[in-house]
Write a structure and sequence with these properties.
With 149 residues, the protein is an alpha+beta fold. The chain has helices spanning 3-21, 49-52, 56-60, 64-68, 109-114, 118-134; strands spanning 28-33, 40-45, 77-79, 90-95, 98-103. The longest helix is centred in the N-terminal third of the chain and has 19 residues, at 3-21.
Length: 149
């Protein structure tokens, strides 16, 4: 899958999740590369574009160990139940060293999950994970890929 394709899939996933939930589930969706020992934003949609990378390591919080342990493959994901504010609530592995970071900067995952519509809102996220599993994101480092939303 290309970066443009994954951006479209993420946009559709976010819209469908919000519709099923009846409000915003995640207001921050970020495609990040951790290749070459650097965090690089490949795509950002959210309210704090300039601050995201500065606080990335701190905001990983409870997800940091899971994200960096290397046990996850394309399509695998993890949620952090108690992330509040800018602490990230979820990640989805998009490919080797490539991740989708999802966050709600106003609500914790625990609060989101208390809404009875949360179960239905997870379906588009799982569908996105399955699409990534079948066709992981591939990045050509020879091409300029960094874009602003």
């Amino acid at each position: 899958m290309t970066l443009d394709e994954i951006r479209e899939k993420i946009k559709g996933c976010a819209e469908e999740m919000n519709s099923r939930y009846g409000g915003v589930v995640f207001d921050e969706w970020v495609v990040v590369s951790l290749e070459r020992n650097r965090a690089r934003i490949l795509h950002y949609a959210g309210p704090r574009n300039d601050e995201f990378l500065k606080n990335f390591v701190t905001d990983l919080g409870a997800l940091r160990t899971a994200l960096l342990d290397g046990k996850y493959g394309a399509g695998d994901f993890e949620f952090a139940r108690h992330g509040i504010g800018t602490s990230h609530e979820a990640f989805l592995v998009l490919g080797p060293g490539l991740y989708l970071i999802c966050n709600n900067t106003r609500e914790s995952m625990d609060t989101i999950a208390k809404n009875t519509r949360w179960l239905g809102a997870q379906i588009p996220f799982v569908n996105l994970a399955e699409a990534v599993c079948a066709n992981p994101l591939e990045i050509s480092w020879d091409t300029k890929i960094f874009t602003k939303p």
